[in-house]
Design goal:
With 490 residues, the chain is of the alpha+beta class. The protein has 2 domains: 254 residues, no CATH class; 183 residues, Glutamine Phosphoribosylpyrophosphate, subunit 1, domain 1. 31% of the residues lie in helices and 19% in strands. It contains 15 helices and 21 strands. A 7-stranded antiparallel β-sheet has the order 1-20-19-15-14-9-8. α15 links the parallel β17 and β18. α1 runs antiparallel to α2, α2 runs antiparallel to α3 and α12 runs antiparallel to α13.
Length: 490
C-alpha cells in the first residue's frame, strides 16, 4: 500500500525564484511574499512580516518590544543588529511586571536601521500589509484569545481595561485603529514617530503611572547597535550567532564543544547536547564577555547525566527568516519577553510594553541605570557547503537547545532540513528534561540519569523553527509544524 505523500506532519523545503520566507504566523508570511513580489529586499519583507506579527501576536511581540537579527549579505559579510533598549537612566528598582520592568523598546528603531542599510521599497509599502490588517479587521487567533483571558487581570491592572481585544472571542473580526494610526505615523516620520512626540509622551505616561522611571530622554537617546556576529566552525560548516548582549554566545559555546567531541555514538548525541547546553547556561550572566567565553571548557560525562539544570521556563517570542533573489538572507526574533511583556498598556496607540528589565539577574548582569539586560533572543545563520541557512525559534532559554538540535542534525547526522525540523525534541528546564512523547530515546535518556518528563508532541516548549536561506543559489525555506509557524515562496 502506498503511503499518502500529502498526509505527513513534516513540512517540505520550498524553493522559490524571487524569495522565500518562514514566520511565526501565516499572515506574516503573506506580507513578506507581497513585499518580495513588489520588488522588495529581504529586509523589506522581514520588517513587513514583523509589523504584521505586532498586529496578530501582541502576546508575543509588538511595538513595545525588541528585535534582533543577523543579515548575511550576498557576498558573505554578516552583520548583527541589536534592536534592544536600555534601562531608564533614573532607574531605582526593577520588577518582573509593571512600569519598573520596562526597558526602552528597540524594535521600531531596529526596523529603520535595517531598512536604511538594505531596504529597496518606501516605508508606506513595507508597512501596508500590517496597517491593512489592523484597520480592516483581523480574525482573532484562538491562541491570542486564550492568552488575553489568561492575563486579563494583569492587563486590566496596568491600563488595558478598555482594550477591545479583551472582549473579542476566537474568530471574531477585530479592528485595531489606534495601532494602525501609529503605524501610519511611523510610515510618515520613521522611527521619530515612536521615540519622540505624542507616542513617546504616551509611553512615558503609561510607564510612570505604573511605577516605572522611563523618561523622554531615555527614548530620544535610544540607538540600534550594529556589529559583527560571534562565529564558530562546526563540522565543516560555520555558525554565526548574535554577539552580546544576547544568549547567542551560549549556542556558539555548546556547538563548539559538541563539534570538538569528534565521533561519538549517535545514541549519545542528544545526551551530549543536553549536557553541553546545561553547562553553557552556567555562563548566562557573563554573556557580555562575548567571544572570549569560547575559550571556557564545557564538561560532560557521555555515560551519565550531570543534572545541572539551569535553563528557565520562559516561552514567548516570534521568529521570521527571509531570503531574497539578490542573495541576502536574514534571521530574526521579536519579543516583548513574557506574555504581553510588562502588561503596561499604551491606550493611545494600542500596544503593551516589554518587561525586559525582568531579565536582570546577578552580577555582571545586575540592574543599573542605562544598562541593557542579557537577552534570550538568539537568531543564527549556519553556512553550509550548499549555502547559508537563517534559523530562529521562540522559546527563550529553549532557543539555544532547539537550534543546537537542528544544526547538530544537519552537520553531524547529515539529516535534511525538513526532517531535522520535524523530528521530536527535548528541552532542559528547571532541572527536568522535557521530551516530546514520540522521541525514540526517552527511555535511554532516563536510564542515563536524566529526570525525564514526557510532553505532548508539538508542546510550545519544543519551539517552532523558522528557516530560510539558499541551496545551490536558489532561495529556500522550511517551517516547523509546531505552533502557527508557516513558510512561503515567490
Amino acid at each position: 500500500m502506498i503511503a499518502n505523500a500529502f498526509a505527513s506532519r513534516e513540512r517540505p523545503v520550498l524553493t522559490g525564484r524571487i524569495g522565500a520566507v518562514a514566520a511565526a504566523d501565516p499572515f506574516a508570511v503573506a506580507a513578506a511574499q507581497e513585499i518580495l513580489t513588489a520588488g522588495g529586499s529581504a529586509a523589506d519583507a522581514l520588517v513587513a512580516a514583523q509589523a504584521v506579527l505586532a498586529v496578530v501576536a501582541p502576546d508575543a511581540c509588538g511595538l513595545g518590544g525588541d528585535m534582533l537579527c543577523l543579515v548575511r549579505e550576498p557576498h558573505g559579510r554578516i552583520r548583527a543588529f541589536n534592536g534592544t533598549g536600555a534601562a531608564p537612566q533614573n532607574l531605582k528598582a526593577v520588577s518582573d511586571e509593571g512600569g519598573a520592568s520596562v526597558t526602552v523598546p528597540g524594535m521600531v528603531g531596529a526596523w529603520f536601521a535595517l531598512l536604511d542599510s538594505y531596504g529597496r521599497l518606501p516605508p508606506h509599502l513595507v508597512m501596508q500589509p500590517a496597517i491593512r490588517l489592523a484597520r480592516q479587521k483581523m480574525p482573532m487567533p484562538p491562541s491570542l484569545a486564550m492568552a488575553l483571558q489568561r492575563h486579563r487581570a494583569r492587563l486590566e491592572r496596568y491600563g488595558a481595561g478598555q482594550w477591545h481585544l479583551l472582549s473579542a472571542a476566537a474568530g471574531d473580526l477585530v479592528v485595531q485603529e489606534e495601532l494602525a494610526t501609529l503605524l501610519d505615523r511611523i510610515v510618515k516620520e520613521k522611527d521619530h514617530a515612536f521615540y519622540s512626540g505624542i507616542c513617546a509622551g504616551a509611553i512615558v505616561k503609561a510607564v510612570q503611572a505604573h511605577g516605572g522611571a522611563l523618561s523622554l530622554d531615555d527614548l530620544r537617546s535610544h540607538r540600534t547597535v550594529v556589529s559583527d556576529p560571534v562565529a564558530v566552525d562546526f563540522r565543516g560548516m560555520r555558525l554565526h550567532v548574535q554577539p552580546p548582549i544576547t544568549q547567542g554566545v551560549l549556542l556558539a559555546m555548546s556547538a563548539k564543544a559538541l563539534s570538538g567531541l569528534g565521533k561519538i555514538p549517535r545514541n549519545r548525541l542528544d545526551h551530549a547536547g543536553i549536557e553541553l547546553t546545561e553547562a553553557s547556561f552556567a555562563f548566562r550572566d557573563r554573556v557580555t564577555e562575548g567571544e572570549s567565553l569560547l575559550t571556557e571548557p564545557l564538561t560532560l560525562d557521555l555515560n551519565r547525566a550531570g543534572n545541572r539544570g539551569g535553563p528557565r521556563a520562559y516561552l514567548h517570542t516570534a521568529g521570521v527568516a527571509v531570503a531574497d533573489r539578490h542573495g541576502c538572507c536574514i534571521s530574526s526574533l521579536v519579543s516583548v519577553f513574557d506574555d504581553f511583556g510588562s502588561g503596561v498598556f499604551v491606550p493611545e496607540f494600542g500596544f503593551t510594553l516589554n518587561n525586559r528589565a525582568g531579565g536582570f539577574t546577578g552580577a555582571p548582569n545586575d540592574a543599573a541605570p542605562g544598562k541593557r539586560p542579557v537577552h534570550t533572543l538568539a537568531p543564527a545563520i549556519l553556512e553550509t557547503p550548499r549555502g547559508p541557512i537563517a534559523l530562529s525559534t521562540p522559546g527563550a532559554d529553549g532557543q539555544v537547545q532547539t537550534l543546537l538540535q537542528v544544526i547538530g542534525g544537519l552537520a553531524i547526522e547529515g539529516i535534511d532540513l525538513a526532517k531535522v525540523i520535524d523530528r521530536p525534541r527535548w528541552r532542559s528546564e528547571n532541572g527536568k528534561l522535557l521530551i516530546e512523547r514520540s522521541h525514540p530515546q526517552c527511555a535511554e535518556l532516563a536510564a542515563l540519569g536524566h529526570d525525564v518528563v514526557e510532553m505532548d508532541d508539538g508542546d510550545m516548549r519544543a519551539g517552532a523553527v523558522t528557516a530560510a536561506g539558499f541551496v545551490d543559489g536558489s532561495p529556500i525555506t522550511c517551517a516547523d509544524w509546531r505552533r502557527t509557524t508557516w513558510a512561503g515562496v515567490v
